Fold these 4 entries.
Entry 1:
Amino acid sequence: MSYISLSQKDKKEMLERIGVSSVEELFRSIPDDLKIKNRLDVPDPLTEPELSRWMDEIARQNSYHEFLSFLGAGAYSHVIPSVVDYLSSRGEFISPYTPYQPEVSQGTLQIIFEFQTLICQLTGMDIANASLYDGASGAAEAVLMANRIKSKPKVLVAKSVHPQYREVIQTYTQNLDISVEEIEYSDRGEVDIGNLKAKLDEGTSAVVTQSPNFFGIIEKLDMISALAHERQALSIVVVAEPVSLGILEAPGRLGADIVTGEGQSFGLSVSYGGPYLGFMACCKESVRQFPGRIAGETEDVDGKRGFVATLSTREQFIRRERATSNICTNQAWCALRATIFLELLGKQGMRELASQNLQKANYALDQITKIAGITPRFQGVCFNEFVLEFEKPWTEIEEFLLEKGVIGGLSVVEAFPELENCALLCVTESHRKEDIDRLVALLKEVCS
Amino acid sequence: MKKVIHEPLIFEISGEGKNGYVLPKLDVPLKDNILEDIPSRKEIEGFPEVSEVEVVRHFTRLSQTNYCIDLGFYPLGSCTMKYNPKINEKLAFKKEWLLSHPHASEKWTQGSLQILKMAEELLKNITGMDAFTLQPSAGAQGEFVGMLMIRACLEERGNPRKIVLIPDSAHGTNPSSAHICGYRIQEIKSNERGTVDVADLAEHMTEDVAALMVTNPNTLGVFETDIKKITDIVHTKGGLVYMDGANMNALIGMCKPGDMGIDVIHLNLHKTFSTPHGGGGPGSGPVGVTKELEPYLPFPVIEKEDGILSLNHMRPKSIGRVRSFYGNFLVIVKAVAYILSLGATGLKEIAEIAVLNSNYLRKNLEDDYDLKYLTPTLHECVFSDKIQKQFGVTNIDIAKRLIDYGLHPPTMSFPLIVQGALMVEPTETESKKDLDRFIEAMKQIAQEAKEDPELLKNAPHGSYVRRLDETSAARNPVLRWRRSPDE
Amino acid sequence: MYPDNYYFTKDHEWVKIDGDNAMVGITDFAQKQLGDVVYVELPQSGAQLEFHQSMGVIESVKAVSDIFSPISGEIIETNDELNDSPELVNEDPHDKGWIAKIKIKDETELEKLMSASEYEKFLEGLEE
């Protein structure tokens, strides 16, 4: 397949106009000893039918979608309205460039402005950006931002923050003057307040908490934020499952200074880990330290309302090494899908979506923990995920469930060696009562 | 003065009681005390309430105010805005890809792992590098990963060093990525050809320098003919060479960075490998390394044993993780489909035609627009507004006037070494007709600059919105909609 | 154009002496180069500065520029009006657009600076 649009005649005319006899002459600046002598070791071209067949064969080696699955842990299976796919597949949304020329990019810019507003409303903050890569790198960027604002060397990160997010924070801070200390979690599965108080001091830039946390437990954000503020530290709240914000109070109203998280739940498939959608929001005082592209409202010469990328002096193409982030290309098309999703569901829909997640997960938790040999590992209140502890080895239970076509949950012992024979289960609105009851029946069978 | 509004914001057409999507009714018994001790909200304040019809019309109308590749030419230098093949979209959205959960055991996701492994192998072949990571979500994140690996390698050798050398023509992400790795930047001058001044490099290359970040061809579209000499200078003093692969479109099938002495390179799948730009992402910035740097790759890495692929997280020398999971998977699927559909011959043709198209544009415009550097260029070239400045017309005015001709402007004001820059990169997917249309428009604009500069200074005239006030947007930022001023 | 009693630097800052203190700002040439100023990051009062140390940043829509201290000394006052009205730097760069007042540490440093006519010659040289 070729996407060249030149005829033989065109090529001849162009070469003549340039004044060379062949295309090879145009590559004179590449030394001969660097030029590839043979062809690339890449297969011969495939036509569309051949490529489709090839891809079908590879795809057949995936069988995950045939299972009834209860996996979550940072990637959530929610409804995706057909309108989201339909609208986002328009060429005018897929194929434009970054909106550096606002006059011909008003669609992209207005949608970013709407996205920013929706994120502010969800999180209860003043300002949001056009997107970051994902929740994990968002958490890292938030830590760097807090360090720029406070100029203090220490950051406290709760252990109940997603292990991958903590790994990314580590990667981003390893060569800077920032030391990361972890805060323990309690029996309730929440941040251990005593441990937090002990570690907070005047050298702390920020406290990073996730809510609902990795264990699915809802954290006491107002208490944590208040403690951070007593020591002039910032409260960073990470939201990996923002569907929860349809029913839980906005972190901004619980003392959060920076809210960041993963928007994959809003209209993106789990798609083996990407592309996802990082979001970040802050208060207006911090805007100059805020990373990422931002769209702002303005007027044109005729007084028409329009939108532009603004406050660009924070960004790398102007500030270079002193930029608030090196980010350039972000996840704009994913933010578009999220915007369509959020506007379609709207006030009522988001409330209903959050409520169903809460109800179904707690129904599942109640039914499952009636079974002898299974207990909830933590006492805190969960949103749509929970950790179960099993008397029998989890591997045995997992194997049994798999044979019956069910992926029952995620073992957490790798990230938390102290949580042996525990599994993290996620239940969303996409699980019907009969799916949950099927899981319960199977667990009863294997645990008896 | 009351603002004139075309398409309202969704919040402005919202009305109580409307909704656009209905979920099945709750089928488990309702338990109403779950959140009794948890702060909750009755509703998301200010969230819109609209119907499906209103959403579809809103976004459809907004889409029609966007210029896009499917509409026309995008001569943006350094962005490689080539056509996005539609088959790749279709193949990326197979349900087997969309529904596979990243935490699923490798047993159930061998297909997804095959795609990732295939991508690594193909990119190794194309670049001549020994190993790849697909984790970085974009070029800038790739740069960060590359620089982290350089630092880790030098640390293991005994000294991470303090400085990174970066040519003054480099993209802004280069210095900002090096900075997050804890390095100080030292700028290297470009010579009169626009390429790295080898003497200046040799002078600055000390044992305090960790690396040189080089773009090849550089941001002027010029191939660094002395690249082997350059990498030797750096290696002799114990440093490493990072290559920004954003301009790979000029090299593909012609030569390999792995043969140039490059230690680390990032690629942009959303540039060279045709994945759609989406208005600003998602992209993908795979990073290729030599054997020596392979141990430092982000975890997990994909390994094959007895024909089965698995993810290995046990990598003691790894620089860590830069994002959740494995990378922008769907973007990678599209790039694999692209590479396979072009094959070896098609890939080489990319570079040939990209360079042909660019030189054709250059030849036709070099009498109308100033070229600061006369060095031969490959897939892009940089004009400036020097001639037009005599009439008070700047590169921005030229750009805005191009919009009136139904064309997207070239890259503005970059690289920094050319004042009033206009960076033009047509890519290989443009037809001669479209190239001629662009040439014609640019020539007319050059004429207009002489005869009627005011026309350009007030451009664009016929677009959906005219020139926007970016000054007040920055002085008095309005960054979200609010129901009332005090919300 | 450039006031006779002012001193000038190669980085386009100006200095006006007022007893023991120096008032500092950027020149008309600089503000034209920058374009519409949208924000000025002012130095902290009380900060001790060395000659040519960065004392703040001026941002326009598409550019960022360091302000380098033309003399050594302590910042005793900053022009806080610039917080609400950064455009003063464009409208009146040599007077109302002043940036900071510095208590002069070493008067001999003024000898390193240019006079108004020297600065104008310097600008002509740049344009070639």
Entry 2:
Amino acid sequence: MATRRVRRSGLTMPVVTKRFVDNAWRRGCDYINLDLEDFVPQHLKAYARSLIKEAIPNVSQGGAEVYTRINHDYALADLEAIVWPGLSRVNYPKAEYGSEIRRLDEIITRLERERGMRPGTVEIGANIETAVGVANGYEIASASPRVQDFGGASGYDMSRDLGVEMFVGFDQFVYGKGELELIARTLGIEVRGAPFVANTTGSVSDGDHAFRQAEAARKCGFRLGGGLNPAVVEPQNRGFTPSEEDVRDAHWVLEQYRQLAGSGETWRQVNGRIIDRYEADRARDTLEWAELCAEHNHAKAEAVARVQVAMSQASA
Amino acid sequence: MSTKIRRSWLLVPMSKADCLAQARQAHADVVVLDLVEFVTEEDKPAAREQVRTAINALQGCGAEVFTQVDLELLYADLHACVWPGLTGVVISRLESPAQVVEADTLLSQLENARGILPGTLAIVAALETAKGNHAAYDISRASQRLSGLTLGRADLIMDLRPEPSGEIHLMPYFMQRLITVAHATGVMPIGAWWRAPDRGLFATPDNTYQAAQRGRAIGFQGSLCILGNQVEPLNRGFTPAVEELQAAQHILAAYQAGTAQGAAAVKQGDRIIDRGTAAQAQHLVVLAEACAVREQEKAEALSHPPLAIP
């Protein structure tokens, strides 16, 4: 499997709101998701599309990847306008059939060729937001190698489609999320999911909640974050990154595991904890991820520094 | 139909002589001689050679004997395991119906070669990967030998970790899916509802009992375990408690009295006892009796000296 990309935090923003777009590089997130869909009013759809090409280099200056969320109903027109160098992902809302994804793949393939982008650069995020999407999950997720992570079946659209309430103190999407996670794991692609942490207020800027959610997700093995408000970026980056204590603990587990070699035992208990190959795998995973996060933080910090130098030279 | 009572499935590492010696006295309904999870790669060849002796040594102790075999080493493991006295095999990490068919064919050949009644050896599919769970329904229908489905150590093999709620991630979904498929295909759902800090079938006796009780409540009928001290909690947790049995008997008595007078349903306290309620009570009474019979069988077996098998 390819090295996991670091996508702990991301902001989805309407591409028509200039101050969001112009400040995006300062936000410290791992990706920016430029929206053409629900945050863009109907009369601005065409105008919004025309902004993407220039927004890509702008929002990525701070080291963030760039995604675009297109409209389900205008997918073809949107794609023509947005597939340009620097774009790493197209998010496709309300995916319901494998044929839709195959069609997107064909068009993206052509645009990559015409515009000098390496084949396969642009991923497809197949957003499952309807019951039909859940029922056809396997054919959707397996329709294109551009679908590299899969999951969901939660959120406002799903709630509306199923007629369930959005902010309740229990997990209302057990079945749909389980189905999609099983499909992702069966296909060997990254799981887009998270353990349930109650959010009964619907707040999008609660940093404490964002941190708890991110930390619980990481401890459960998940890596993908994202949100709508800059206040959750830092908490998500922090929550999805192994703490120093987690790293120390992982080293300790591996040290204990090494002592099993040659003993004829497959597991042992140390300080009440079981040490076996599964624990060792988890520890290695933690260390690898901690290193990727550190590298990525470093790369982003350097990118931001370059922008600041360029700006001060320009104003001098 | 008489349901097999297989509440506790004690995994015993084939490489551990002391564990094997204790297995006779463990009071497990099933002893599973393990060649997969608890035997190191280096020890596997030697462990395989010991299986026949171990099967013989367990005869007459009252437990059924299964072995747990490795899908990737299926040929060697089955050749080592299939001897008279074996009831069946747990196949770890099963992922497709084709693999079940392959195992079925191998078992048939070995039954023939080794004087075992054809078609008698059972297969329990351990669905411990995503592929296996995805294909559960087809796997469960792939052979007449298929007699049980379990998630085995899926939590470790699929790296499913505890959530803040204490549930092990994805397990509530996986358990219900497996139980539904098992009942749809007429095989036994084997497992327990483990919660953090339980991991990989390992838990304290108390937690094991809780997991068995919760497991029985959602349709499991027995579970694998690793330690001797988990056997009694599993047997107890999967057996109706005395109060449950008494309540069921009262329900049945009330229902029978009512139907004898031509009523379809009767009132007992605040409850309405209809056909469904009575059928459930009847099932519980039958289960409790079968468990008692099984306990007696095991007690009698252990009171006799081990049979010497040449």
Entry 3:
Amino acid sequence: MSQITSIGAGLFSDLAVAAPATELTPAGIAALDTDAEFQALFATEIASMGGTPAPGTFTRIKNVREFPSLGTPPNVVNVPVFGSTTSQQIQGQADAPSMEITLNFVPAEWAKEAGNILGNFVGDGKQHVFRFTLLNAEPTGTDDTKYASTAPGVGTVGNSQYYWLGKLEALQVSPQLSDTNTATVTLTIQSEFFGAFTS
Amino acid sequence: MGRYTDAQQDIFSVFATNEWKSEGIATHPSLIVPDNPGQEYIRISVIPSSTGINTKSVAGMLLIDIFAARVQGPRRPMEIADALDKYLNAKSVQLSSGMTQFMSSSTGKPLEDREDPALSMTLYSIAFNYFGEN
């Protein structure tokens, strides 16, 4: 498929994190910059609970209630100009954004137990590769490649993929007495955003 | 065409597909009387009653009356609603420059059909947005 070409609601938008068998080295992370390199990390979906990491495996962060804005906010600076009636604006160095994601909380998905991928990523201090995919329609693939970055997955429908490096810093659970339990996952962003790519 | 006819065309096209026809559920637009009274069918009404996100868009509800044999009880209308969900719930259709996107569906209480007491009538509704570009 290709980039999304019409106005619409991103009903099936998806957040995922790469879960390779061996951690990426700093040199490997630094070398990531093309669509093919990022997409290769998101080839086969594995479950957070009991999934077996292997080259190209990833885990979806499911049940998201609300996504934040993606991208780095601008830091526009007004610069006085001698002799001019109006100042000029320049783009200053922008603050790195942090990202908070609210989700419907399934404790088992996030338990800090052996073999639980997402639970053990929280607060591990390690950089991971994240992917956000804007999807207006549900991918028509099946099984563990339905949400893969390549053609059998999200490429079956219009898609726009964004990648970045970051850490899963915190998980805050919000018990609810009259609604579903929710949690807020906080990511820190430690690279620029790569994309929008598509497949 | 205009946004109203484009939205209606998108919606009706769902019921013109071979996949929907293979479900074997007789389908009629509103105001059309079915040929075989007493038989199970659905009746489709497109209600583009809300303004859209811009002057080329429109939003509204797709209301579908599900008529099923009363002797089959409450299960059959839900089976038909599930069949409708396969083609409508959170799906998108694009035949013209704009796109019609369906949201999440709901159903109502089964009632006796006043026209034909042998049938029950259950309302299936789903919100839609037709997105056109300025």
Entry 4:
Amino acid sequence: MSDSPNRSVSRRSFLTSAGAAGALALAGCTEGPGGESTGSQLSGSVRITGSSTVYPVTQAVTEQFRSEHSQVEFNVSRDGSGGGFSNLFCEDNSDFNNASRKISSDEQSQCSDNGVEYHEINIATDALTVIVNNENDWAASLTTDQLKEIWEADGASTWADVNADWPDEEISRFGAADTSGTFDYFREEIIGEEANHTSNYEPTEQDNTILQGVQQDQYAIGYFGFSFYQSNQDAVTAVSLDDGEGAVEPTLDNAKSGDYPLARPLFTYPKVSSLAEDHIAEFARFYVRQSANTDLIADQVGYVPKTEAEMQSELDALNEVISNAE
Amino acid sequence: MATQNETGFGQISRLRGTVFKYLTFGASLVGILALGVLLAYVFWDALGLDSAGTAWYLTYTVVLLAPLLGFLAYARDRPAVTAGALELVGFTLAGGLLSFAAIIVLIVIAGPQVWLTYFLTVIAPLIGLFLYGQYDREATWVGLAMLGTVVAGPIAGTLLLGTIGSAAALLGAPGVYFLSLVLPGAGLAAFLAADRFDASTRVSVGTGVVIPVLAIVGVPLVDTVPVMARSVWFAVLVLLGMPVGYAVANTARRPARRAAFALPAIAVGGLLIGELVVGAVGASQPSPWLDWQFLTSPTSSLPVSAGLYPAVIGSVFLIILVSIFTFVFGVGTALYLEEYAPASGPVGTLTRLINVNISNLAGVPSVVYGLLGLGIFVNIDVQFGPVGYAGIGAGTVLTAALTLSLLILPIVVISAQEAIRSVPDSLRQASYGMGATRWQTIRNVVLPRSLPGILTGTILALGRAIGETAPLIMIGAVGTKYTPPGGLFDTLTAMPMQIYTWAFLPSEEFRYGVVAAGVVTLLIVLLSMNSIAILVRNKYQQEAY
Amino acid sequence: MSNEGQTPDLTGDRGLQTVRESTYKYALAGCALLSVLTTVGIIAVLFVDAAEFFASPVVTLGEFFTSTRFSPNLEPVSFGILPLVLGTLLITFGAALVALPIGLLTAIYLSEYASPRTRSVLKPMLEVLAGVPTVVYGYFALVYITPALNVVIRTLNGAVGTQFPTLGLFNGISASIVVGIMIIPMVSSISEDAMSSVPDSLRQAGYGLGATKFNVSLRIVVPAAVSGIASSFILAISRAIGETMAVVLAAGSRPPDIPPVQTAFGIIPYVGPGDLLGLYSESAATMTVAMINIAVSDLSGGSTAYQSLFAIGLTLFVITLGMNVISDAIASRYREEYE
């Protein structure tokens, strides 16, 4: 009876003392002869808040930046685009706010009330992907009208309602919560103005539950950002969409070229007063330059990078704002 | 003559009782089994055990597991050996955690200047007053003086930060820690030797002298190891070495307990031999997610290089602050409500309202506390005449600590109240009968007896606080931070926050491997805390009777 | 008279002692005041924004309390709190069903039947249950419990022919189980402390009268410790009501649909057991889930939808307050004091 605690205790104490020793080692490191910076003298801290969709991009970019400027500290949090604006950015508590949609008028007035000036940067594009179960061999390609029928309120309730050849089974839907930017975008693009999005679906803020739901149910359908599909391509099947010009697969190239219908822009909003500081201005430029970096944005994270030309115009606009800020 | 059937009292069926006993036993196991399954899954993933070959399992079973089981079977019937083993393990654990926490707080976060300042203005006077109070029992002003120091000390320290800071710079970081850790530690060692072990004056003084000497002698050795700094060596010597030394001395001096030394011998020896054998045989080892690199590097967008270091530091910092705050205010509130507050009359009704209020607060969801923290610590801007208060920062250590403290305070208060209530009133009356005042009764009778119960409640509550994510999200704690917090007003990330961030990233390796490693780290910290609390509680329970 | 040097002076030092006593008394009272301030703070923070929410032209109080649909952003927009209350009730009831009996039985075992050594091993293991982060519990429910339960249901349906509905990815049963497991230690630890503090003389008196251990435990100890047990129940249920992260993951973000209420004999309203089971096998977002989803969403901070968060919080606060007032009244009636 008393063997398990004791055995796991000695393992525990080994791990704890190992961890302690590790921390000792590191503490020793931090106390070593004054910081030898890797070349750069930039230092300071940067606070980035906002959308969880843009978060992976920011994380990858800040990591890259840190490898060249190790003295700059980053604080990145995921508060949602709206939460980030109203609780933090427009209350003058952060330097950048990421958003998966443009800033709203309420947020604009809140920012101006608090004297927060911002600059809008389009940092990447997301190819919103519709997924079905791997066993689903009938709906690997859908027209946008069929998609609308599946997802609108009082629309189809079984697959057979959409197309009589398809199985007469109820559709299980998994999608973004109605409070997210992804939902807003999907509704605007697919459902349109006249109809409503169905409420007969499983809403969630966590995209991997959409993945799991579709993976486990043969008659399920879901939608989320491309980065989730890219990391789990064997688990589910991506649906090719046809908006009248032929079925287009959801790939980054198709989104970049504009053929894929569901391509939504992602933004980041730096605070103008923060741009007066050197390390933030330098990071902002780096951020914009990375937006055209295919390795980082496309391969590592899973979004559509900007073209060189687009990146350059953003960079020019940014530089102008920076020089006005100083 | 009087067999059972002929007594005339009849038979009572024992069946119901036995069934009930096994039913309750089964019930106790349900939760533990569920926990066991969960832990097994998590540990399996974190330690990457599925990639280890049979040879590896076989080796460690023979070299480590079997001797340990043998030792446990041996110790089962010998309570002295068990007690010795528990003491050794417990003190090593406690010492390890203490030195770990102290290094993080005193060296990494505070730094020599800040530490020296608050040591001189708060800690040293408190220790001095305490010692004087032990020596001269008649001086009743000591308690008040200590209270005064706690209030005035930090203020004085903040004012004198500059002057003492430059003094610290003169002494140098190792010098500061030598003065503030090693010397008091030596004094404590000498005192313990004389008091607990009844050593002669010479031996006690000798013990006291050995420690600074060891510290100084070890310096050139430590200097050769590039990663360990002198201050760290001092901290380890005092905070880990002394508890372990105490346990070792305690065990060594009783012949019945000496067999307990087999436990560390088996553990260390077994691990070393196991490593040698596995290396020689070339068995496939497990590929753990939880390894050195994980514990000492910051997070990253690549699963293989992601780590938990800043989050661990953040969590430790948080827990220390939260435990101090909740213990002081929680026990204080409970004492007031149970001992001082009248039970009837208008103030009595107020007391009952406060009680109901506290019960209610215990059920308020953590999200609401997050909103509270956001509202009064972050997004606030009020003016009280000349003084303005604009909050203490979004996602800073202090905001998070205060918010979490408010969250678990009601739970601590309620458990403390139950513990204090369970102290029989006859003891209190006896104390009053001897002429003690209310505070004396509380300090000498009520508190010692209720301390185990209070500790139970506090540990449960702290365990909850470590794992809370929702309030941290609301107050703006960050999901990605590459460096640990440097002070009270620095932003922080904590372990649950980091795990939560990882759990919803697209890559499967993050969700199943890195998250598991994070959860295991968190659980290890938790288990260590719980173990220490249990040992302390057991010790107090023995002494109370 | 002759021991003047040794007798303490009973008449002197009153001044300082009074000062000391008063200082401690007021210092402790100050601590107690903190809890009051916390409540005031919470009410203030919630009220200010909830008032704005109700003042908005889109929302009416009546609609808030009677509408059967909660959808802040999905057309047609409706802010009805009933589905969320139903979700909270489902999860809390389910969790209580799991945790209260198991916790109480565990406490009885630990305090009455277990040997000191078993007790010293079991009790800490149970306390670890309370420390596992709630996110992990929710994740565990989603990844392990739901599929396992579905396997059991399918085998049962196939073998015995019952018509139990299979569980969706998000469902109320897994959430209830997991929250229940999480709160078992609260019930068991605190109840056990209460039962241990029942004086042994009562037990011995029972044995002396010829009662079996079973009788003594159930008929003497448990009733004697009822106030401690009740307060542990209340604490545990409060925790279940306020649980957020585990429920978000396990029970999803969609509030349950209000089931049709049938009447028996024309007067007594009831919900059919089939409907009830159906409720549990689908997502059941609670009030706390709705709050956190709105809080981390992309909604604009000043919008009505965002402010509904505060209205829900206020309702939750009022509900738990009412529950605690009632339970305090009941508990104080039954509290027993010894010696």
